[in-house]
Amino acid sequence: MLTHARINRLLWAVAGLLALAAASTGVWRPEIYEHVVARDLIPGAFSQDLLSVAAGLGLLYLSYAATLYRTRHQIVALGLLGYLFYAYGIYVIERTYNGLYLIYMAVFAVSFWGIALAGATMDRNSPSASLPTAPRLASASGAILQPLIFYPLWIGMLLPLMRTGEQIDSLYSVFILDLCFIMPGFLVLSLLTYRNHRAGLLLLPALHVLGFTLMFSLAVGELVKPLFGAAPSLAALLPALALSGLFLVLGILHLARLRTTPPQEGPGVPRSANPGSAQARRQTMHTPPSQ
């Protein structure tokens, strides 16, 4: 799927290491969020760090295991990069000025450019992808449900602020990240999947991975509240668990039923190069004809 696997995997490893360092510190010493994060939001920061530790470890593994033709590994890695982009985008945009802020910025930047590089180096021809109709429609329907819910919800919350000019102190980053990045991604990839387009079939499960990690982080944030002297809220816990479960089921279903066909190896197409790549074309040109 990705034609320059080595540089992509390098960025995954760097993002994973940086996230692991920052998130492990936050889990070990959650007091670093005092005075920079509202007290009632510290359990959420703690749970986000727990998920970021898991995402960092996952990216480190995938940077080693996701070889050229292991498409599912690459898809999951892109989903975890998306999670780190969102999670550390919150810290960066919300001005979480503790001793780790520069690392937060580094994770945010590396994850963004890792996603951009993946888009730039995605092979336009291989692997071919197919998905049976039922899981394809289920995956696309679950994805398009997100912008249908969150666009009206977030815009409805923004309109009173726009009328009064009030500037809220926290969580405004969610409006920016959701409305400008995540919801458009769900909308575009769900429509491509509905149309059985190869890009949608390959990339939509990455958004399911992102959605699961984000929603499960919110659920864990409710469960760890007693550690910080607060009571969990069922009204917040149950929707987060339901959405994370939905994303998990859709992601597993999509990846399990996804069928990809790697390029065929031939005399002019070495195992290390994709048939559509410049390297493969050059080697084909220089391969003498058989006698």
From TrEMBL:
The keyword Transmembrane applies. Keywords: Membrane, Transmembrane, Transmembrane helix. Residues 274-291 have a biased composition (Polar residues). The keyword Transmembrane helix applies. The chain crosses the membrane at residues 50-68, 75-93, 99-120, 140-159, 171-194, 201-221, 233-256. Residues 262-291 are annotated as: Disordered. This is Uncharacterized protein.
